[in-house]
Amino acid sequence: MSGWLARLPERARVSGEPEAWLAPDRPIMLVLDQRRATEACRELLGHEGTQEHVPLFAATPLSPLLEASPWCVRLEADSDAWRVGEALCRERRLGWCCQPSSTVTFSDLVEHLRGLFVWADPQGGQSLINLQDPVALTALLGSAELVMLARMLAPLGELSTPTPQGHWQVWQSIESREAPDTPLRLTPDMEAALKVAPQAWFLAERLGVRLDEVDATCLEGLAMLNRHGITRARHLESLLPYVQRAEWREREESREILGKNQPAWRKVKALRELMGTLQAQDRDTHAWTM
C-alpha cells in the first residue's frame, strides 16, 4: 500500500451525518467543481440558504480559465441549499466543504483557497492542482508533510471531504508555527499520490473498501492495464477479478494479449476470455481438493 493511503486513518476519520460535526450557528463553505455539473451548481444558487458565491479563478493569474473555475459557495447551515450542496459533494463527487471559525471572514477564506491551486513541482516548474476535486485534495492531505498540511488547513476550520463510498471524512486539525510562511511545493511523494489517487479511488469505490484498504497488488494491476491502453471505467470494472490476481497477470498468455498492437476493446475481450478459463480452472481445482 502507498504510504499516503496508510496514513489516511491517522489524519481523517469517517463521519456520520454532517450535523454531528457542523455548528448550526456558522456558515458552511462549499468548494464546487461547477465545470462538471454547471446546471446543477447554478440551481444550487437559487435554493434558500445560499448567501454568496465567488469563482475562485477570478482576479487571479488563472482568470483566463474563468469559465472552468471552481466556485466557493457560502451557505447557511441546516438550510435547503446546504442539503442540496451536501448531496452534490457526497453523491456526485463535485466538491467538499469546510466550516471556518467565526474569526475567518469569507474573503479571507477565498484568498487562502485562491493560493492553493498552483504549486511548485519537483521538476522546477509549476503544477495546477484540481483542488476542487475530493480525489486530488485527499491525495494532497494524505501525502503532505505536517508543515505543509498545517499551511493548507490553517483557516479552513472543520474540513470534510467525500469518500468513495459516499460518506464524509473529517480531517484532523494540525498546528504549526511555520505554516503561514511555508511556500507551496509538491514533494515527489505528493506528486506520486496525485497520480495514483484516481486509481485508488476507483478500486475503493468498486470493491467497497476504504482507501487505506486498497491493496498494492490491485493498484499495480490497474496501472498495468492503463499502461497498455485499457482506461475506460466499464472495461476496467469488467476486469476487476483479473486486477486482483497478480498470478494471472504474470502468465505468458496475459503478457501476449497486452503486448499485441490491437484496440483496447480487443485486449479486454481476450483478457475476459482468459479470465473465464482461469476461473474455471480454479473451480475445478477447488472441487478436486474438497
Task: Give your account of this protein's structure.
This protein has about 290 residues and is α+β, with helices and mostly antiparallel strands. The longest helix has 26 residues, at about 265-290. It has 13 helices and 9 strands. Strands 1-9-8-5-2-4-3 form a 7-stranded antiparallel β-sheet, with helices on both faces. The chain has 2 domains: about 5-185, no CATH class; about 215-290. Pfam families: DUF4123. This is DUF4123 domain protein.
Structure described in brief:
By secondary structure, this protein is an alpha+beta fold.
Q: Layout of SSEs?
A:
Elements: H1 3-11, E1 12-15, E2 28-32, H2 38-45, E3 50-55, E4 71-75, H3 80-92, E5 95-99, H4 106-114, E6 118-120, E7 126-128, H5 134-143, H6 146-153, E8 158-162, E9 168-171, H7 188-207, H8 216-227, H9 233-238, H10 240-243, H11 246-249, H12 252-259, H13 264-289
Antiparallel strand pairs: 1-9, 2-4, 2-5, 3-4, 5-8, 6-7, 8-9
Protein traits:
single chain; 290 residues; alpha+beta; seven-stranded antiparallel β-sheet; 13 helices
Spatial strand arrangement across the major sheet? 1-9-8-5-2-4-3
Main sheet attributes: strand count, strand direction, barrel closure: 7 strands, antiparallel
Instruction: Count every beta strand, where a strand is a DSSP E run of 2 or more residues.
Output: 9
The shape, in one word, is elongated
Euclidean distance between termini CA atoms: 34 Å
Secondary structure: helix percent: 40-55%
Global Rg: 22 Å
Tell me the count of domains.
Answer: 2
Low-confidence stretches: none
- Average pLDDT metric: 92
- Please, what is the oligomeric state? single chain
Which strand-content bin applies to the residues? 5-15%
What sequence of helices (H) and strands (E) makes up the elements? HEEHEEHEHEEHHEEHHHHHHH
Count, helices = 13
Structural class: alpha+beta
